[in-house]
Specification:
- By secondary structure, the chain is α/β, with parallel strands linked by helices.
- The protein has a single domain, classed as L-arginine/glycine Amidinotransferase, Chain A, CATH 3.75.10.10.
- The protein contains 8 helices and 15 strands.
- The protein has a 3-stranded mixed sheet, covered by helices on one side. A 3-stranded mixed sheet has the order 3-4-5, with no helix packed on it.
- Strand 7, helix 5 and strand 8 form a beta-alpha-beta unit.
- The protein is globular, with a radius of gyration of 18 Å.
Length: about 280
């Protein structure tokens, strides 16, 4: 089956290797596996977490929309984030700008691309008050071609607030990282209540989570940070006890090839497969 999308990734350079030691070695295997199923574009970018800062795509028109990238959770300098925005403009000169200050890691679409799921946080809207949610929602819906935005409460103290570390669709099933032991029962129930009108409870699958809560930047042990494409599913592995169990669970729900990606080292810098890729149709 021919793939319907092109996968974009960051080129390993001396600069990225200096910031993320081991990225070059990781890319040799990762990019080779991606190329077995997809055409990939390797861009010379200042940072490797392309999901966060590359444009989002309107699934109806194909138009790309660039969010305002200026994260508060990392020690990025204004010059560094400016270089990222310049690089995006270089590779995507026809991109339209969007006023929202939101990373791509905090945007998940359902399989029909009609509903957007985000963690609720106060830094999303740049030039207005956060309680004017209708403006935020309209910007998101216009950018992605969706009909609805669903806000989920985030954990107190969560400095990153990336929803792709909490939930991800696989086929018509919603896979959720089982964070109940970490976030507490009250927050867990609030999230389930927010999802209930949009997700049939029978379509929710819990994935074990082995994240180290003492290291908020590390994504090691977060298995929902996988990438499903039209032809395959690329799943992070961490050299942890649950690795093979995760693959068994996912095989029960999907017939596409499942490709295991060793993210044990790279995840310690803040992400895994989903964070490292951006797909465009």
């Amino acid at each position: 089956m021919a793939s319907k999308e092109i996968i974009f990734v960051a080129k390993p350079t001396s600069w990225t290797e200096k910031i993320y030691p081991g990225y070059l070695r990781f890319c040799k295997e990762f990019h080779a596996k991606l190329k077995q199923y997809h055409k990939i574009e390797i861009l010379d970018l200042p940072d490797i977490w392309v999901r966060d800062f590359l444009p989002v795509q309107n699934h109806k028109t194909g138009q790309l929309h660039q969010m305002f990238f200026a994260p508060l959770y990392a020690n990025y300098t204004p010059k560094f984030t400016l270089n990222i925005r310049k690089a995006v403009q270089k590779y995507f000169p026809r991109v339209k700008s969007c006023r929202l200050r939101i990373d791509g890691g905090n945007i998940i679409l359902n399989p029909e691309c009609e509903t957007i799921f985000c963690f609720e946080k106060q830094t999303i809207f740049c030039k207005s008050k956060f309680w004017e949610k209708h403006k935020v929602e309209q910007c998101l819906k216009n950018a992605l071609g969706a009909k609805c935005v669903v806000w989920l409460p985030h954990e107190t103290g969560d400095k990153i607030c990336h929803i792709d570390g909490y939930m991800q669709f696989l086929g018509n099933k919603l896979f959720i990282s089982d964070e109940a032991p970490f976030c507490g029962k009250i927050l867990w129930l609030k999230r389930q209540k927010a999802l209930a009108p949009f997700i049939n409870i029978g379509n929710i699958v819990l994935l074990p989570c082995m994240a180290d809560e003492s290291d908020y930047l590390s994504a090691k042990g977060i298995y929902v940070n996988f990438l499903e494409t039209s032809v395959a599913v690329f799943v992070p592995q961490y050299n942890l006890p649950y690795d093979k169990e995760i693959i068994k669970i996912m095989r029960k729900h999907i017939s596409k090839p499942i490709i295991e990606i060793d993210c044990s080292q790279i995840a310690e810098y803040g992400g895994a497969v989903h964070c490292l890729t951006r797909e465009y149709k």
